[in-house]
Design a protein that fits this description.
heterodimer, A: alpha+beta, 5 helices, B: mainly beta, seven-stranded mixed sheet, five-stranded antiparallel sheet, 32 strands, 45% strand
Chain lengths: 179, 443
Amino acid sequence: MRRYSVVVTCLVLMLTLAGCGGRSATTLPDADNGLEGFGIGGSGSGASTTGVGGAGGIGEFADGPSQRLLDNLVVYFEFDRSEIRSDFNDILVAHGRYLADNPRASLRLEGHTDERGSREYNIGLGERRAQAVRSFLLLQGASASQITTVSYGEERPAAFGSNEEAWGLNRRVELVYRQ
Amino acid sequence: MMRMTMERTMRAGTGWLLALIALVAPSANAQLEITISRGVERPVPIAIVPFAWEGPGQSAPFDVSGLVTQNLRNSGRFSPMAERDMLSRPTRPEQVAFPDWRIVGVDALVTGRLMEEGPGRYTIVFQLFDVARSEQILGYRLTATESELRAAGHRVSDMVFEALTGIRGVFGTRIAYVNEQRNGNSRLYQLIVSDADGMDPQVIAESSQPLMSPSWSPDGRRIAYVSFEGGDSAIYVQTLRTGTRERVSNRAGVNASPAFSPDGRQLALVLSMGEASLNIYTLDLSSQMISRVTNSQAIDTEPVWSQDGRSIFFMSDRAGGPQVYRVAAQAGSRAERITREGAYNARPRISPDGRSLAVIHNDRGNFRIAVVDIQSGSTRVVSEGSNDESPSFAPNGAQIIYATRERGRGVLAAVSTDGRIRQEIASVDGEVREPVWGPFPLP
């Protein structure tokens, strides 16, 4: 299922863009000279992205069904799954079309998991979820250059606690519009 | 008597680290406290007589015998006698009256002295006796500066421990772990290096964004880790002595799970390269060339090198659930499945003798630590929690440190490889996780 959609995405991309494999595989790392190991923090204040409502920057639609869909900036997942649930189809269709209609808009997809299982596996699972959302949006006409992904795995839970409710809230991809 | 000198420069760069401690918030100094939740059935009764202080002033600058007592008790294999129960307090071999110790049921006896040799220079002399045979098992003389006295106390503990158990002691080793503190909506992630007993914690990196996956270099001088400080994941290698660090990978998508090769020249790491799948790569640290090791549509992650550096163990969900595989460190070879029992085996870490892996194993719905025999695949669960993770072998192979949850909080625990001795290592505050045990200190 997942592979199928990746293939479809790839075909769509190949027709419209340069294709799936177009990134350079061995970017040389930037040297990070002079930076002391300590004192990393502070600067970022870090894109605290948990703001679910109040999507700044996408208020171009008048209030209507689309706008209400676009107000949804979190997509939830089943345990250990990365398929898009059907109840999120309409929301993601709206976001995909919004991106297609607004080529200057850019979106960062942040994948998360619940706390169960290994942290590194969860990094992989969070990325898989973010990529599933990305593929969906590309099929709606968004362009690859508009979307970046990051996986936080289980490192940034939205809800604390070791119960089904918290886990359900933590298995998510957050859509973060920029600018 | 053998003469022995502590020449190891004490965690060089102490000045810088002290300065660092002065800079960070007090909570950063949260120390870990060890309690034994289960020891061996018959711990060895031992008496460690308070060491004599031979120098100016009333008391010694450091309680060496107190540290030895605490270490041996915390190991779960010894029951040190309370000071008040001692019938006599010898500090020199000729003062020892063995019948005094036989009568109170002590098997082993440690005596010693701490002497000031000059300003800030000390000598520790100690002896270990077999009480039943009325004979000395070992005796050593160690020299140390004031800041080295704690390390010297660990060294004494290691020698006593090894003489009585046949197992090399790990009291002088260090661990690294991640601590997260939450204050309302703000979070502080810290990467901390401390002694194996949790003392002397030093923050080596801190960020408002996640830090994870610390990995020691084989010589204990560097730590590789993942930081999200720029908003994306990147892998850094940091030299502990100087605090300088280098970003070695910030490729598109996931940069995760670094692991030093046994010769310290390469890192195994995990990259997504913008795809939905994760694969294992190796990175030559001097040329910065990467080579791809696995090529799957799955999540391949958590690489760890075999002792000879020729192969890499890793976790993959290529067959459905997470299982552990082994692959040659060169590209293009076929991966061979190692774990056979259970539907979930992840985060392999290899034992120092290369024969077994510690993994996270789903044990009837609970994530627990298990030890897997590489040859046979047989699996033995050694922990008792419901969400235990991140196992890491002590360099002597006798213990595994891991992260567990207690009353909703992330804490560290250790278990002997045979599952018999359990220690809880509780921190004062914060969520503690991803412990990794460093190597033996360099001679």
